[in-house]
Amino acid sequence: LNYFDEESDQKCGNCDICINPPIMFDGTNASQKVMSCIYRTGQMFGATHIVDVLLGADNEKIKKFRHSELSTYGIGEEHNRKAWMSIIRQLISLSYLEVDIQGHGGIRLSNKARDILKGKKEVELRHDPVALSRTSKKSKGSGSSIVIQKPEDKELFEQLREYRTKLAKEQSVPPYVIFHDASLLEMAINRPANISEFADISGVGASKLERYADQFLQIILAA
Question: Residue 31's closest CA among 106, 112, 103?
Fold first, then answer.
């Protein structure tokens, strides 16, 4: 509608966005990682190489440019390749990143990116239904991605996010320090019923298991 100079403040009720609204997440930390990686690699490489650096890939291009020595090498293991590509596409769409067409498709930072890099602005991104964060520990070998399909799972996911936000404020830390969205997605879908099953969720180490398992299990079991 905006493209045709028409505006509407009501949902149409027909498109996929209205019928099945996308799940949003705080993408500030992920955006900072992407932007920092683009900056440190010289703002001259495409999305594929940026994702390779974030995931700590070992290939000839990374060896050639010695990008394994960068501080951003391997810092993006909380997301899979498809998720990182989705994040980069969204940041380009939001004009935080620019594609240098004359520079063979290299990605560079726009002026809008500065506030995000400096922590002055937050950015919300959507979970791509075909490219959500990492698979669970039980299904890593299958290559399948986490996809929320049931409305009740989406509701539980939002409850877990709200509780994580509450804890983050109490502890004065970013929400991802407690659990990444990928972990909450697995909790909402797999619904662990005890400590043992909770430990199988990706991103749940020994310290987080001891510190948070009881509280999150209460929310899951009550849903």
Answer: 112
